[in-house]
Amino acid sequence: MSVVSVSEPMPVPVKLADPGALGLGAFALTTFVLSLANTGWVPAAGASVLAVALFYGGLAQFAAGMWEFARGNTFAATAFTSFGAFWLSFWWLETNPAVAQQAGPSGVGTYLLAWAIFTAYMTIAAVKTNRVTLAVFALLTITFLALAIGAFTGLGGISQAGGWLGLATALAAWYGSAATVVNATWGRAVFPVGAFRS
Q1: How far apart (Å, rounded) are the C-alpha atoms in residues 198 and 196?
Q2: Which domain of life is it from (predicted)?
């Protein structure tokens, strides 16, 4: 009596698309809209940013972070998940006036300063990524610092400067998002990101 062995089917490898384009795009667009309000250029953008902060900057970017965990990218997973959570917490503060009132200028300043500290050490890690990513994190660190100082001091000019820095940050992040999606789609480096040599 012969025994017929049945081999297990080979698992089909699953290739995850690069969620970096989504994460950077969500961060860039939300930062851009808020920064238009912070500069005083488009004050009404302060109201419209809430929907973007919840759904795109928050939920979509948080999801991008989860996918980066699945890809084994510790830096991008930490960045996107954290900044997705930042936009969700921003939405919470802005839609709960009682909470924002209790926090006051010093509470908001502390909140922004804490994010500046996080972004600063992420900037150190970004040195091992590429020039575009490093530019985004360096600009964002300075943006958070300016906004924190503006909140602590109540000086509108400093907060406004933070808005202009935020616009620069958003443009750099948008470039990174465009480079990721366009280069992947075209199969070549259409938009260079300035990769660092190991």
Answers
A1: 6
A2: Bacteria
SS3 4: coil
Distance, CA of 75 to CA of 127 (rounded, Å): 11
Residue with tokens 């972004």: 119
pLDDT tens per residue across span 153-183: 999 999 999 999 999 999 999 999 999 999 9
Helix locations, 40-73, DSSP H: 45-52, 61-71
Write the pLDDT tens digit of every residue in 17-61. Answer: 999 999 999 999 999 999 999 999 999 998 999 999 999 999 999
At 158, the amino acid letter reads I
Query: In angstroms, rounded to a whole number, what is the distance separating the alpha carbons of residues 16 and 71?
Result: 7
What is the rounded CA–CA span in Å between residue 148 and residue 154?
Answer: 10
pTM of the model: 0.91
Quickly count: other Cβ atoms within 10 Å of residue 181's Cβ. Answer: 18
